[in-house]
Amino acid sequence: MLPVGLLTPLSEDLDISVGTAGLMVTAQGVAAGLGVPFIVAWTRRVDRRRLLSTLLAVLAAGNLVTALSPNYPLILLTRLGMGFASGVFWAIGVGMAMRVVPERHANRAAAVVMSGISAATVLGIPLGTLVEAHSDWRTTFGVWAGLSVLVFLAVALLIPALPSQNAVSVREVFGLPVTDAGLRAVLCVVVLFVLGHFGAYTFVRPYLEDTAAASAGFVTLVLIVFGVGGAVGNLVAGFTVDRSPRRTFVVGAVGLLAALLLLRAVGGGAVVALVLWELSFGAVQLAQVNMTPAAAPDTFEAAMSLNTMAYNTSIALGALFGGLFADHLGVTRIVWFGVALIGASLLLRLATGRRRPLGAGRLVTRSRCIDHERC
Fold first, then answer.
1. How far apart are CA 106 and CA 53, in angstroms?
2. How many CA atoms within 13 Å lie on the side-chain side of 102?
3. So what's the pLDDT on residue 374?
């Protein structure tokens, strides 16, 4: 999230347009989506603590290179490398968290990890902007490089060795949706949900400006509320997803639809609708993370790599299709784009996966808790 708040000073210093500077975000997102299945498969024999430490080292080095870079092409190339690292983290990070706690706390551990997305949404942009305001954009990336080093040390010192499990080749990774109908259905649900959510969410600001003449300060407040609501939704769903990831997804998707319809009915003043939107998104977010490996418990890391690819690619496509929808039909009607696709994901989830997959709610029990005394 960090570059989003630094695009203006960075573009001015490097003499590029803001749109060109925004490619930093695009490049990292594309790399995170498309590269992860290959890297997860190629590193299938590597201890997961060692792999995560390597990813954090790449993150620290990338931020440092960005801070010191004399030109934009080098920054863009660096962001590609960081994108690969962040994509692999989402493929292995949740599973790692679930493996280092007792089995009964596995889904709650996943919820805590996933709440990091919401925390980044709340804190990443304003903190980066605050540091830049008292220094410059290069110093800001330098500070984040230092923070990455601290997390690297914490992982190296505190996380136990986690031998790789469920290792599969690249061919097997991409063959999973072909041979596994349950996983294929879940991935389709994820794609539809992400397209709908981010297609509408990307245009929240212009929507509020058009319907309620919202100020920049109000929009900032809304985005903070979004982030906090998502974190709360993650944590609440951490309890309900133990019973049924599918039911949690259904309830969350219904909440998303209700929020979008309420927002469309009462316009930009509907803070209640926006809070409901993000609470529901937090629940759906955690549910889809749990549904994916539950559909393929014997190859959960490979399944999560496909989830990461589908998720990140759908974010980009959702913004693209949503933009076309807004340009041709008007930004105030973007809500219907979200309603249609989230509704489709809900219907597909209701039509599939009626039986709870073996091991759902205990997705990583096959790997066992590392600290056997705690288990």
1. 22
2. 5
3. 38
